[in-house]
Amino acid sequence: MTVSDKDTLVLWRPVPAGSVLKASATGDETAFDVVIPWSRKGVDQIPFRHSDIVPGPQILVFQTNDQVALNPIVTLFRDVDQPLSLKIVIEDPDGNPVMVMAPEGPGAPKVAAACEWQISQAADSPLLLKILTSGV
Question: Is-contact 134 113, C-beta < 8 A?
């Protein structure tokens, strides 16, 4: 799924049990911080920290009928020449992309559960995102 750097809400469904979410970030580590607070079935979990995500990947395995909400927060301390990148993907246990319903709805072709955001200007910070998933 191609997203613009301004897309801040992503909905991925259905996500099969056993699928693996991978979160990673790259860039000048002195220029940014990233943390991903998240919840499973409405219960807050221990957030993924910068050291888990950079270079990553931080991994989360989906359970049967899982509902996961991720709230990535990226803070850029100063402008950088090379954008920092936050990438979040969901793969099956074999490493293939998990295909989910397209934003256009059930009649549209399925898309890979994969997004990447890039940020290079401190004025665009903090980047606040919301990723919602529901499983089968």
Answer: no
Q: Say how far apart CA 34 and CA 15 lie, in whole Å.
A: 24
Give the span between the Cα atoms of 128 and 20, in whole angstroms.
22
HSE-up of residue 45 (Cα within 13 Å, Cβ side): 17
By percentage, how much of the chain surpasses pLDDT 70?
94
Tens digits of residue pLDDT in 65-84: 999 999 999 999 999 999 99
Backbone angles phi, psi at 132, to 5 degrees: -115, 135
Quick one: which of 90, 91, 45, 39 has its CA closest to 67?
39
Q: What angle do CA 7, 85, 57 make, to 5 degrees?
A: 110
34-47 pLDDT per residue, tens? 999 999 999 999 99
3-state DSSP percent of the chain in helix, strand and coil, to 5: 5, 45, 50
Nearest 5°: phi and psi at 135?
A: -105, 180
Q: For residue 70, give both structure tokens.
A: 């991720």
pLDDT for the residue 16:
94
